């Protein structure tokens, strides 16, 4: 996993977490849901890359 991909995936998860928090603060369930989805997507990408890294060893 390249450092660039790792940073990109972490940034996506962080953006999702921020968006989810904004949705909660604004009492906007749609924004909160979109943020949660983006956060999960970033976390899944990170997990997939870790599996690839482990398989290479």
Query: Roughly what is the average pLDDT, rounded to an integer?
Result: 91
The low-confidence parts are none
The gross shape turns out to be: elongated
Strand content: under 5%
**How many domains would you count in the coordinates?**
1
- Helix share bin: over 70%
Q: Structural class per helix/strand content?
A: mainly alpha
Question: End-to-end span in angstroms?
Answer: 12 Å
Continuous helix count: 2
Q: How many extended strands?
A: 0
Task: Tell me about the largest β-sheet.
Answer: none
Radius of gyration: 13 Å
User: What is the string of helix and strand elements?
Assistant: HH
| Oligomeric description of these chains | single chain
Topology:
Blueprint: H1 3-25, H2 29-56
Helix pairs in contact: 1-2
Describe the structure in your own words.
The radius of gyration is 13 Å and the shape is elongated. By secondary structure, the chain is mainly α. The protein has one domain (3-56). Helix content is 89%, strand content 0%. Helix 1 (3-25) runs antiparallel to helix 2 (29-56). The mean pLDDT is 91.
Summarize this structure as a short list of keywords or feature phrases.
57 residues; mainly alpha; single chain; elongated
Short description, anyone?
It contains 2 helices and no strands. By secondary structure, it is mostly helical. The chain has one domain (3-56).
């Amino acid at each position: 996993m390249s450092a660039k991909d790792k940073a990109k995936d972490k940034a996506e998860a962080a953006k999702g977490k921020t968006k989810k928090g904004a949705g909660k603060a604004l009492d906007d369930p749609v924004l909160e849901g979109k943020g949660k989805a983006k956060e999960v997507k970033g976390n899944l990408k990170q997990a997939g890359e870790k599996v690839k890294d482990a398989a290479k060893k």
